[in-house]
Write a structure and sequence with these properties.
3-stranded antiparallel sheet; alpha+beta; elongated; 6 strands
Length: 107
């Protein structure tokens, strides 16, 4: 199950279900599964340095500076193409900075 632009999408075998909400998508998957056991894996939305910079209203250099200082969330993985983070972690980091410092982060 994963979010897309305007919906949540789930897959059970060859069946694909869509719903406007996570809860609705889960309910649809349960209906498709019937009486059987349902294990749901939610795939987080991942972002790289460029997307993190865009979310925070920063440039890529500033993100790299915070990463090198250890002042940025831990990445989920470090790939050959660079580090990646969960989008929700970057958004929470930005919201926390706004609360602590009173600075506004433009989105």
């Amino acid at each position: 199950m994963h979010p897309e632009l305007d919906a949540w999408v789930g897959r059970l075998g060859s069946r694909v279900v869509r719903s406007k909400s996570r809860k609705g998508c889960l309910a649809a998957l349960r209906r498709v599964a019937g009486e059987g056991r349902l294990i749901v894996e939610v795939t987080p939305e991942l972002v790289g340095v460029s997307e993190a910079a865009e979310i925070l209203g920063w440039d890529r250099r500033r993100v790299a500076t915070y990463v090198s200082r250890g002042a940025f969330p831990e990445p989920v993985a470090a790939l050959a193409s660079g580090r990646v983070w969960r989008r929700e972690d970057v958004e929470a980091f930005g919201a926390d900075r706004v609360r602590r410092r009173g600075r506004r982060i433009h989105r």
